[in-house]
Design goal:
It is built from 8 helices and 6 strands; from the N terminus they run E-H-E-H-H-E-H-E-H-H-E-E-H-H. It is of the alpha/beta class. Helix 1 packs parallel to helix 7. Bound molecules: flavin mononucleotide. Flavin mononucleotide (FMN) binds next to helix 1.
Length: 231
């Protein structure tokens, strides 16, 4: 699939971690296919996760009352969002597929990645009111969560313990990404890599690379509440 463009938003501190290996495998496989791959390595970039006034160049539109979302919307329209945010928006704009690679932190994403979502997916760029879900501005793109957990698959499938892992994906996949229009490809979940044998760890990386061989043939999930909460 030469010509396809992929952005990998990667949040791990250690290049030799399972997350680092999964990211590397994706870069290799997709590049071999002839895709154009860009990686946002958030820790290496020292990415700023906080949503503050520093995100807007010039005077704020309402100096008496600071409202981040409104200021971000205004700054987006005027072209005065901070450079790091604009660069990430440009990478998304140029991508057909955005892969998020991260370790699960407290049933969600690490703070540095949460900050990326907070700052980059601003109103005007990713959505508007109206202009969300199927009318979200990123509707011609796909998104895929590829993550690792500390807990084993058995722990996650014991509903009385934590509930089906799909419940956890409702906020991120539906509330954030689908809200902005993204088509959602099924998640790639690697359970408990830290407690897996070396051969099992190698298989986790290999099966991710194999999935990516046919990623462009995949259909998105039906991102409605039934995917998450039924059966
Ligand atoms: N593992 C879980 O299964 N559920 C969690 O909610 C969870 N929260 C975490 C929060 C923090 C702050 C940290 C540091 C780890 C947490 N973990 C949790 C464990 C990590 O997900 C796990 O160590 C990681 O996915 C392993 O991948 P790695 O070897 O690439 O680091």
């Amino acid at each position: 699939n030469p010509g396809k463009r992929v952005l990998i938003v990667y949040a791990h501190q250690m290049p030799t971690s399972m997350n680092g290996s999964l990211k590397d495998a994706a870069v290799t496989e997709l590049s071999n296919q002839g895709c154009q791959v860009t990686v946002s390595d958030l820790y290496s970039m020292n990415f700023e996760p906080r949503a503050t006034r520093q995100d807007f160049l010039g005077a704020s539109s309402n100096s008496e009352f600071f409202n981040y979302a409104e200021e971000a919307h205004e700054a987006y329209k005027k072209g005065c969002l901070s450079k790091d945010v604009v660069e990430e928006q440009k990478k998304i704009q140029e991508a057909d597929l955005v892969i998020f690679q991260f370790p699960m932190y407290w049933l969600s994403v690490p703070a540095i990645l949460k900050g990326w979502l907070d700052r980059v997916l601003c109103k005007g760029f990713a959505f508007d009111i109206p202009g969300y879900f199927d009318k979200g501005f990123l509707k011609d793109k796909s998104a895929l969560l590829s993550f690792t957990t500390g807990g084993t698959a058995e722990k996650y499938f014991q509903k009385e313990l934590r509930g089906d892992i799909k419940y956890i994906l409702w906020p991120l996949q539906h509330g954030v990404l689908h809200f902005c229009g993204f088509q959602i490809l099924r998640p790639q979940i690697n359970f408990a890599p830290e407690h897996a044998s070396e051969s099992k760890r190698k298989e986790m990386v290999a099966s991710w690379a194999r999935r990516l061989e046919t990623i462009w043939d995949e259909k998105p999930i039906n991102c409605t509440s039934s995917w998450y909460f039924e059966k």
